[in-house]
UniProtKB/TrEMBL annotation:
Its main location: secreted. It comes from the Eukaryota. One of its GO terms (molecular function) is serine-type endopeptidase activity. The active site is at residues 164, 239, 604. Belongs to the peptidase S8 family. Residues 155-644 form the Peptidase S8/S53 domain. It comes from Morella rubra (Chinese bayberry). GO terms for cellular component: extracellular region. The lineage of its organism: Eukaryota, Viridiplantae, Streptophyta, Embryophyta, Tracheophyta. This is Subtilisin-like protease. Keywords: Glycoprotein, Hydrolase, Membrane, Protease, Secreted, Serine protease, Signal, Transmembrane, Transmembrane helix. GO terms for biological process: proteolysis. The chain crosses the membrane at residues 13-36. Residues 64-130 form the Inhibitor I9 domain.
Length: 824
């Protein structure tokens, strides 16, 4: 079974909510063009070259304000002088970390702009898509909370910015606790509280320190619906609230859905402050609004930026590293912001990552060890497993009810509007005979309507309520194969049976018990069934595993997928079936309407785990740069599951697994307890310049393209792109031998002696020089890694270098190598 053959129910999209659906362009021939201009943006203007650890600009200074105004004026002058009056609308000027603007106009006008003086680069807006009672325990976070003085202080003083669908400000996860006031000031942060529909001024309550919304792109691209597309930071979707509460939601918030208590939710860094940048709307999401949000968040001074949104496809006509989204992330990082992004939900295909650049942390998603098994009891005593967060049928799932196949309850005489597929899918109550189905457990069958997203679970639940089903089943159909089901809270007893084999057990039993006349009409229903409680968590021993949907490496430099010498994804965090805050309006997912919490899956859900953990590290080590934080997260990650075995990755076939490689999980599953004290770190005092040198060293790259995108000349290039000082080594083609250079710093408080050991990738020998070293606190050590090919291979192979310290620090970096030939 190939990936393309797999069936997704509409509910999978909901679950993988990754990226809320986005429309690119509606008005005829008009589109949004993103334009980069010559000349320094305000943040990097005339200041000494900014260091990664410091926000060196002062946005209140006269120089800053004057320069920002000058840039805006220059954008207007250019537009007035180049385009026909009335043919365009400038949506934004970017002036803080990037000098440029977004303009809504026709393709022919845009062509004029492309050649105008001062214009460096132009890109069409590709759209932007959206991509825990339990997870804190799973990751061992409470230990970190203890070190931070208890969970009442975890993340204190750190501001995390969220570019997403907004926030539900009155959710308990974001409540301000007057008995536990924030003790420290947040230095260097200055936000704003933009109010509007459903977002009154008291929404910014001290926990939420700032909230803004960006809608110029959305307004230009689509007709917004004022009953869902609120022009305020209010979250009508739920996604933004989910992401924010996963990173920084209050601790100990009870999760209650349909009256059932599932446990207590807590963010990774429950005392971190939240800055909201709403940029995606139920109707539309544009890259323009996302980029404006990134520019503003950096100007406001967030410590960490969480991007569970972004373009859902690789850029077509540029280096992956040099598309607008990655350029903005580069400059946010240059200004000292730690940028985390979702790796994407296009797994398990190789090279399906949507995170490309070494300056942003791309997060892959894993399941936790918690599942919600649900079961169906048949009249003959057989039990069949399934999925669905619902209570049992009346009688605690033991008392049996008449079992009826929806197709056998069609009103002979009735008028029903749709084809038989919709009837077996239980989409229309008027099609089924009330007398037959009332009080029964009804079997609905997966069919074409689900395949093409016409049919919904919401409609089944509506049918069940209208006709008084005791419960419903949604069973797999051999014609379409197994489907992917995610647990969703059902307000009536229900269970999904996603496996064809299981569905056949049920249907065989049903046919055996049911009497039919010659024409096939049922004369006697005699099968019976009961649905068990699906809301009780169970804990499996194989976890975590890399989720099937999580996008995979290798990273690539262009649309031809030429591999890059950078590891992606970077890190693995829980992203499958995560409980977190929701917005009851649930404008994009009617099935979750009315709920305050939702159980969601996607790399969107994994990303805020890393953002929260970065906040804990930053709180513990306030002077650490983004590079140090990223290094600490990577070198302390584990590749083992809770049984001490290699973490497995889910393959194409539902339920199939293979041993993970770094292209599935990066450095491995994040280990927050160890990440606050990593021992060594791969760092650099001039990381921004290093990123430029890295790009300049890419094979066949035109230095002009780099200068055009970044404003930097290729003064220096690395001798090989793999020499960028990352906490991983990836070499996409080794011919004979390759020497790779790394530098480590001792970020511990004491001198330590490290011993290096190597697990060479198949087809290679690897030596590290020196094989051991002693390093003073704050000291530096150069490492040479010599990779020799012993056997040529056509694919990547994997190994690792482990440095074991005398004070028990263990520093691990993954090796991913393509041993192309034995001779150079
Ligand atoms: C916070 O800042 C205010 C004004 O700058 C200052 O008066 C106060 O002492 C600071 N509080 C803390 C805990 O640093
Ligand atoms: C606007 O949204 C509401 C609520 O979802 C919906 O009922 C209505 O049909 C929408 N209007 C348009 C024009 O799409
Ligand atoms: C069947 O339909 C006919 C014509 O619409 C109607 O007269 C008759 O009462 C219906 N019978 C039942 C059992 O609903
Ligand atoms: C979905 O499938 C049904 C049944 O085959 C068909 O009638 C309907 O037109 C399809 N809808 C779309 C949007 O493709
Ligand atoms: C109905 O089912 C019961 C229990 O499964 C069985 O004992 C009985 O013989 C069945 N009756 C008919 C008429 O098949
Ligand atoms: C390249 O050289 C110019 C001029 O010496 C300097 O201003 C710039 O910072 C250098 N760029 C990099 C990336 O080192
Ligand atoms: C390396 O090669 C050996 C023998 O061919 C094989 O058993 C092993 O699985 C390979 N290891 C990896 C990590 O590919
Ligand atoms: C790797 O190759 C280099 C260059 O050919 C050689 O100097 C070195 O000794 C080799 N190392 C090993 C471990 O074979
Ligand atoms: C890989 O090796 C083949 C022949 O062994 C050679 O033709 C090709 O250019 C090499 N590729 C790279 C990227 O070095």
């Amino acid at each position: 079974m190939g990936g393309e053959g797999d069936i997704m129910v509409s509910l999978k999209f909901l679950a993988l909510l990754l990226y809320v659906n986005v429309v690119a362009c509606i008005a005829a021939k008009q589109a949004i063009y993103l334009v980069l201009m010559e000349g320094e943006p305000a943040a990097f203007h005339r200041s000494s070259p900014p260091r990664e650890d410091a926000r060196t600009f002062n946005q209140n200074s006269e120089v800053y304000k004057a320069h920002a105004k000058h840039l805006v004026d220059s954008h207007d002058q250019l537009l007035v002088g180049t385009l026909e009056t009335g043919s365009y609308k400038r949506l934004y000027s970017f002036k803080h970390i990037v000098n440029g603007f977004a303009v809504h106009t026709t393709a022919s006008q845009a062509r004029k702009l492309k050649d105008a003086p001062g214009v460096k680069l132009m890109e069409r807006d590709r759209g932007a898509k959206l991509m825990t009672t339990y997870t804190p325990q799973f990751l061992g976070i409470p230990g970190v909370w203890t070190q931070e003085g208890g969970d009442r202080n975890a993340g204190e003083g750190i501001v995390i910015g969220f570019v997403d669908t907004g926030i539900n400000p009155f959710h308990p996860s974001f409540a301000y606790d007057p008995t536990n006031t924030f003790s420290s000031n947040i230095s260097g942060f200055s936000g704003a509280c933009e109010t509007g529909p459903r977002f009154p001024a008291n929404s910014c309550n001290g926990k939420i320190v700032s909230a803004r919304y960006f809608a110029a792109g959305a307004k230009a691209t689509a007709t917004l619906n004022s009953s869902v597309d609120f022009l305020s930071p209010f979250d009508a979707v739920g996604h933004g609230s989910h992401v924010a509460s996963t990173a920084a939601g209050n601790t100990g918030v009870p999760v209650i859905v349909n009256g059932f208590f599932y446990g207590r939710a807590s963010g990774m860094a429950p005392r971190a402050r939240i800055a909201v940048y709403k940029a995606v709307y139920p109707t539309v999401g544009t890259l323009t609004d996302v980029l404006s949000a990134i520019d503003q968040a950096t100007q406001d001074g967030v410590d960490i930026l969480t991007l569970s949104v972004g373009p859902d496809e690789p850029p077509e006509d540029t280096l992956t590293f040099l598309n607008m989204f990655d350029i903005f992330m580069l400059f946010a990082r240059r200004a000292g912001v730690f940028v985390v992004q979702a790796a994407g939900n296009h797994g398990p295909d190789p090279s399906s990552v949507l995170s490309y650049s070494p300056w942003a942390i791309g997060v892959a998603a894993s399941g936790t060890d918690r599942t919600y098994p649900s079961s169906l009891l048949l009249g003959n005593g057989q039990k069949v497993g399934g999925v669905g967060l619902s209570g049992p049928t009346f009688g605690d799932g033991l008392f049996l009810y008449k079992l009826v196949l929806a197709k056998d309850s069609i009103k002979i005489n009735g008028t029903f509007p749709r084809t038989p597929q919709y009837i077996e899918e239980c989409q229309y109550p008027e099609a089924l005979d009330h007398n037959i189905v009332q009080g029964s457990v009804v079997i609905c069958t997966f069919s074409a309507g689900f395949l093409n997203e016409t049919s919904t679970l919401t409609a089944i639940i509506n049918t069940a309520r209208t006709l008084g089903f005791m419960g419903f089943l949604l069973v797999a159909n051999p014609t379409y194969g197994d489907f992917v089901a995610e647990p969703i809270p059902f307000s009536v007893p229900g269970i999904m049976i996603p496996s064809v084999a299981d569905a056949q057990v049920i249907l065989q039993y049903y046919e055996h018990q049911t009497e039919r006349d010659k024409r096939g009409f049922v004369t006697k229903f005699n099968a019976s069934a009961a649905i068990g409680d699906g809301r009780v968590a169970s804990f499996k021993r194989q976890s975590p595993t890399v989720s099937r949907f999580s996008s995979r490496g290798p990273d690539f430099i262009d649309i031809n997928k030429s591999p890059a010498d950078v590891l992606k994804p970077d890190i693995l965090a829980p992203g499958h079936q995560i409980w977190a805050a929701w917005s009851p309006m649930s404008a994009s997912n009617p099935i979750l309407m009315g709920y305050d919490f939702a159980l969601l899956s996607g790399t969107s859900m994994a990303t805020p785990h890393i953002a929260g953990i970065a906040a804990l590290i930053k709180q513990h080590n306030p002077l650490w740069t983004p590079s140090l934080i990223a290094s600490a997260i990577s070198t302390t990650a584990t590749k083992y599951n809770i049984n001490g075995e290699l973490i497995m990755a889910e393959g194409y076939d539902v339920g199939s697994f293979y041993p993970s490689t770094p292209f599935d999980f990066g450095a491995g599953l994040v280990s927050p307890n160890r990440a606050v004290d990593p021992g060594l770190a791969f760092s650099s005092g001039k990381r921004y310049e290093d990123f430029i040198s890295f790009m300049c060293s890419l094979p066949n790259v035109d230095p002009d393209r780099i200068r055009t995108a970044t404003g930097e000349s290729c003064n220096h290039s690395l001798s090989h792109p793999a020499n960028l000082n990352l906490p991983s080594v990836t070499v996409s083609a080794v011919a004979g031998t390759q020497l790779v250079h790394r530098t480590v710093n001792n970020v511990g408080l004491r001198p330590e002696t490290y011993l290096c050991s190597v697990l060479p990738p198949n087809g290679t020998t690897v030596n590290v020089y020196p094989p051991w070293f002693s390093i003073a606190s704050q000291g530096t050590q150069d490492l040479d890694i010599q990779i020799n090919v012993t056997k040529a291979m056509r694919h990547f192979t994997f190994g690792e270098i482990v440095m074991t310290g005398s004070l028990n620090h263990i520093v691990r970096i993954p090796l991913s190598v393509l041993p192309n030939s034995t001779s150079s």
